[in-house]
Known about the structure:
The protein is mainly beta. It is 12% helix and 45% strand. The chain has a twelve-stranded antiparallel β-barrel with strand order 1-4-5-8-9-10-11-12-13-14-15-16. Strand 10 and strand 11 (196-205) form a beta hairpin.
Amino acid sequence: MQQARQPASTVCANTTAGAKAPAGARHAGTDPSTRQMSKRTIAALAATALAFGAAVPAAAQTDYYNTDAGRPIRVEDAYPTERYAFELQVAPLRLERERGGAYNWELAPEIAYGILPRTQVEVGFPLRFLDPGGEGDVRGLAGIEIAALHNLNVETTTLPAFALAADVLLPVGGLGPDRAYTTGKAIATRTFSFARFHANAQYTLGAAPGAGEQAGEASRWMAGLAVDRTFPLRSLLATADVFAEQPLDDGAALAWTAEAGVRYQLSPQLNVDLGVGRRFTGGDEGWFFTFGTARAFGLRSLIGR
């Protein structure tokens, strides 16, 4: 959440440094304690202005650099939304064409909040439209997703950044699961001068769905690797991944998927992403495309609480 603009602190500092009082504004008879109090008051006000003036845009300056699951690829990095910052996934759209010619659409608006240092919470509302290619189609809410992610450490020259995440898919909506499913995930990110590398591994608890039951988009486990490269002067990130996924039904075939995409910062608070992928195995082979926009913002009333 981070573009090459002159920082607000620099602007304010230059303004303060350049704002000299007129020669006639000083009075020889001014009480020294009053002058000292005025200096302290001005310094405090300047510090407060800098803090609040920089806090809101700072949350969005390199948002293109942070990848979320599905935006634009499945494997994500180990970094959460910055503290006190909101990120609203406005229109994350996914179009999938399966091998038999059926089209599946998904619109999954989400909002994330940096609730604690290196910690975010998130809630999503996936809406699905299924076109089996016959006379009718199916559409509806595919559950409600509540998630949290905590970054465990700052990356160093010898140690990758690690994070833990948990996700609950609630049985809500006509296309949602018939029971709640809880998923735990481990994430690692390693940065080099030429690229970043990410590893994700997750496992879902709960029994496999019975006959006639739905599991939504839950899977038993997933493991994947990703690589990305940033172009800071263009506020652009290019990324790709490959992952394996086992459905909740242990008898189902293992699915292998590869993806690629870009994430571009349009403004300090707005970015877009575009991705393409193909599922090679697993029974639902086919191509899919993703497009999304995200807006990062902060509420000054929440800062410091």
